[in-house]
Specification:
Layout (H helix, E strand, L loop, with lengths): L9 H4 L4 H18 L2 E5 L5 E4 L6 H7 L2 H21 L3 E4 L5 E9 L2 E11 L6 H14 L3 H8 L7 H48 L9 H17 L3 H19 L3 H21 L4 H17 L3 H41 L7 H8 L3 H12 L3 H19 L4 H7 L5 H12 L3 H8 L5
Antiparallel strand pairs: 1-2, 1-5, 3-4, 4-5
Helix pairs in contact: 2-7, 3-6, 5-6, 7-12, 8-9, 8-12, 9-12, 10-11, 10-12, 11-12, 12-14
Length: about 450
């Protein structure tokens, strides 16, 4: 497949797979019909992988009918591809037989993977020296010189403007393939992986003698769906995606592989995702826009694999959407919490529970979110803020240690001293002796 490499054989690349071959063949044919010129895709060694239906001109057919002639053509294509690589744009060259051709490199993820070859035209009428050259070539490749010369007279003659225009088209085509092939060809790879996955899992469950039994099918699926959103809320995105795979597999097994049943279940899942996403704070417009994009895809799905791939794709899209919402929401919560602590650090009653209540979230979720975002616990942050304020009082006032402890929210002097030393490495008195600088 093009997305992998063009330097291997056609069979190894799977270029004959229906979608890849149809796309490339269409591009080659369209180019040739528009320009009346031959076009082909070659690997890095100059081997032709696919060519336009128009085919080579008579002259090139004769040259390539000889093993030595074909070897020369391949060598010309490979050499020209190397030259084009230097500039990353179409390279116009004269082939070993004296005809004008041009080549444009294919790139994928910055890697040169093959060449788009076209041309085999003349820019001028063959001169006497050209006839002499063709006769020598004919002798070297075992062709009749008169027949080869006669075919040369029928080679298409073009102007430099036409050649440049055709080269521009080639550049556009290769740029299109380079940008779109990941989406086009990766889709086919995903279908194959999904197909292997669902049928393998289905067989595994049958071999194990397990089956979806008892209970309410709708409730089972809703339970899995709710678990997915709980894990998103906990920021366990990978676990949420694993649960999604379980949910999709359940839908497939319960549908017994029937496409229309899967599509019906898919629409139910989409409805559930839309409803739950809005409950989790995602804007309705974002959800509807996403669902509009996905509805057409499931409607057009004509195989079980495409429907299952749709289920995974739409589920992951919603997971990412809600995760992004939670991420930005998390930043807002942390900012509010930090501000609240800064304003209330002196209160002895300040606690995780109180801060959570003021932030309208559960203490457990707040503690987990804060640790994930800040790298340390909420309690540690409270103590850090209090000790920073205590350091300020110790440096600038002569208040007693007991007074400083009370003003910074500590109920007991001993506990204050313990926390102070743990954070600063010094006792409050040691810190004051080294840093005391009273305000005038």
């Amino acid at each position: 497949m093009l997305v992998l490499s063009l330097s291997e054989r056609v069979e190894d690349l799977q270029i004959k797979k229906k979608m890849e071959k149809e796309l490339l063949q269409r591009l080659l044919n369209s180019f040739s019909y528009a320009t009346k010129m031959f076009s082909a895709i070659t690997d890095l060694e100059g081997n032709c992988l696919l060519s336009s239906e128009q085919g080579d001109c008579e002259f090139c057919q004769l040259v390539k009918s000889s093993p030595s002639g074909m070897a020369r053509c391949r060598s010309s294509y490979a050499w020209a591809g190397e030259q084009a690589l230097k500039w990353k744009e179409p390279y116009i060259f004269k082939c070993h037989a004296g005809l004008i051709s041009w080549v444009c490199p294919f790139f994928h993820r910055g890697k040169h993977i093959g060449n788009f070859i076209c041309g085999q035209v003349m820019m001028w009428q063959p001169a006497e020296f050209c006839h002499h050259w063709i006769r020598e070539l004919a002798g070297e490749i075992g062709q009749d010189p008169d027949v080869l010369l006669h075919s040369l007279d029928r080679v298409k003659s073009v102007t430099s403007v036409e050649i440049q225009a055709a080269a521009d088209l080639v550049f556009i085509i290769t740029s299109y393939v380079a940008k779109s092939e990941g989406e086009i060809f990766d889709f086919q790879q995903k279908l194959r992986r999904v197909g292997s996955w669902i049928w393998a899992e289905n067989k595994k469950q049958k071999d194990a003698g397990s089956r979806i039994a008892g209970g309410n099918t709708e409730q089972d699926l809703n339970k899995l769906g709710n678990e997915i959103f709980i894990e998103i809320r906990r920021a366990n995105i990978e676990k949420a995606k694993k649960l999604l795979e379980q949910l999709v597999l359940q839908i497939f097994i319960q549908s017994k592989g029937q496409l229309e049943v899967i599509k019906g279940r898919s629409l139910e899942l989409l409805s559930f995702l839309i409803r739950t996403s809005t409950e989790y704070g995602v804007k309705f417009g974002e959800v509807i826009h996403l669902s509009d994009l996905k509805l057409k895809e499931i409607d057009e799905a004509d195989t079980v694999e495409k429907a299952v791939l749709w289920l995974l794709a739409v589920g992951n899209a919603f997971i990412e959407l809600i995760s992004e919402k939670n991420s930005s929401e998390g930043e807002d919560i942390i900012n509010r919490v930090v501000d609240y602590i800064q304003k209330n650090y002196s209160s002895e009653s300040l606690s995780v529970k109180e801060i959570a209540r003021a932030s309208y979230i559960s203490p457990a979720y707040l503690g987990q979110l804060f640790k994930k975002k800040m790298g340390y616990s909420l309690k540690e942050h409270i103590n850090k803020v209090r000790i920073e304020q205590a350091k300020l009082l110790l440096r600038q006032t002569e208040q007693t240690i007991e007074s400083v402890a009370v003003q910074t929210g500590f109920k007991e002097r001993s506990y204050f001293c313990k926390v102070f030393k743990k954070i600063t490495g010094l006792s409050p008195n040691e810190y004051r002796r080294k840093n005391f600088f009273p305000l005038a």
